[in-house]
Amino acid sequence: MNEEQKKKIFANIVFLRDNLDAKDILDYFIEKMIFTLDHKDEIVSQIPNTRLKRNDKFLEILMRSGPQAYDVFLYALEQSGSKFIADRINSTVLGGHEDQDWFSNLTDDMRSKKFNDKNLMQVAQILGKNWQMLMISLGLTQPQIEQCELSSPNAPAQQIFSALRKWRTQFASEATVGRMVNSFQETTSVTVDREILKQIIQKMS
């Protein structure tokens, strides 16, 4: 998928989680050779096997899929009786924040900077609802995110910090300011104080 298509899906992520049931459209992805049978098994065998768990795994795999995935997704929704979901995604107008240009125009030097533990904790403390979607955009899997949630069940900031450290460890040279900013711009449903995020980035040495 291209960046605009990803942003449209992320902008509707809460709506999708609440209104979609991934198992109803998987066969269309198999038919069009977007997903494999292993992907289907992975989605329908989630534990616990709830609609939300299936949807989370489906969306995680969808965001990693190739250039035809978006069109197949809309086609599958229309064919399976969920045209209202396809229409909502298609009609999504991507708007910017006032500070969008600032993040888009970061210098190459700033975009290449790496996060230390202090920086990651600062970011963790300004993230709110739907932070899990940011982690998926950064490349973590749903099981990895759930491990972080289970490790600190009553401490959301610590869950987010653990996930961010896992991202930094797993992706090493790619775990940069630029990569994180790109993911923030993709995941518009994530609650974050962008002004404080800007200050965190500006103060990084």
Outline of this structure?
With 205 residues, this protein is mainly α. The protein has helices at residues 3-11, 13-19, 26-31, 37-44, 51-62, 69-79, 83-90, 100-104, 108-111, 117-125, 131-138, 142-151, 156-171, 177-186, 194-203. It is globular and about 50 Å long.
Model description:
The structure is a single chain. The protein has 205 residues and is mainly α. The protein has two domains: 3-90, Death Domain, Fas; 100-203, Death Domain, Fas. The chain has 15 helices and no strands. The chain has helices spanning 3-11, 13-19, 26-31, 37-44, 51-62, 69-79, 83-90, 100-104, 108-111, 117-125, 131-138, 142-151, 156-171, 177-186, 194-203.
What tags apply to this protein structure?
Death Domain, Fas, 205 residues, 0% strand, globular
CATH topology of the largest domain: Death Domain, Fas
Count of individual beta strands: 0
Structural class: mainly alpha
CATH architecture of the largest domain: Orthogonal Bundle
SS strand fraction = under 5%
What is the succession of H and E elements? HHHHHHHHHHHHHHH
Poorly predicted spans: none
3D shape: globular
Question: How is the main sheet built?
Answer: none
What is the rounded distance between the termini?
34 Å
Radius of gyration: 17 Å
Can you tell me the number of structural domains?
2
Mean pLDDT: 90
CATH superfamily of the largest domain: Death Domain, Fas
